[in-house]
Specification:
Layout lengths: L6 E6 L3 E6 L8 E10 L4 H5 L7 E4 L5 E5 L7 E2 L5 E6 L4 E6 L8 E4 L18
Length: 129
C-alpha cells in the first residue's frame, strides 16, 4: 500500500471547509484511501433530508446507493479544474484520491464532484471556479 499524505482541514473564504496539502504531493500520488459506510438505496431519501445530503457519494454500479466517506473525503471541495481525482472501489468499500498534477504544500485539494475530472456537467450549487 502506498503511503498517504498528511492533510489539513481549513476554512476557505468562499467554500466553507476545505482540505489542504501539508506537504508537496507529486502527480499520480495517492493522497488518501478511505473506508465508506454504505447507505442502501431505500435510505437515500432519508439521507437527503439531513445535513449530510451534501456530503455523500453516489455508490454502486447503478449509483442507487450512497456512501458516507470517512477521513477527509467528504470535505474535498468541487472544482471544474481539479488537482485530484477519486476512484470508487465498490468491491472493497473504499474511495481512493490521487493527485492529477503536482500539488504544492498549502494548496487546497479539489475534485470534480461529477467523478470525471474533465466533466463540465452542472452541480447542485454555484461553483466558485
Amino acid at each position: 500500500m502506498q503511503q498517504q499524505v498528511p492533510l489539513e482541514i481549513r476554512h476557505t473564504s468562499h467554500k466553507g471547509r476545505g482540505v489542504f496539502a501539508t506537504t508537496d504531493i507529486a502527480a499520480g500520488q495517492l493522497i488518501e484511501s478511505v473506508e465508506v459506510i454504505v447507505v442502501p438505496a431505500g435510505q437515500i431519501e432519508t439521507l437527503e433530508a439531513t445535513s449530510l445530503c451534501d456530503y455523500y457519494y453516489k455508490w454502486g454500479e447503478d449509483s442507487a446507493s450512497g456512501a458516507l466517506a470517512l477521513g477527509c473525503a467528504s470535505l474535498y471541495n468541487h472544482s471544474y479544474r481539479p488537482n485530484a481525482r477519486y476512484v470508487k472501489h465498490f468491491d472493497r468499500g473504499i474511495i481512493e484520491f490521487f493527485a492529477l498534477r503536482d500539488i504544492a504544500r498549502g494548496e487546497e485539494i479539489t475534485i470534480n464532484y461529477n467523478g470525471d475530472p474533465d466533466s463540465r456537467k452542472g452541480v447542485w450549487f454555484m461553483p466558485h471556479d
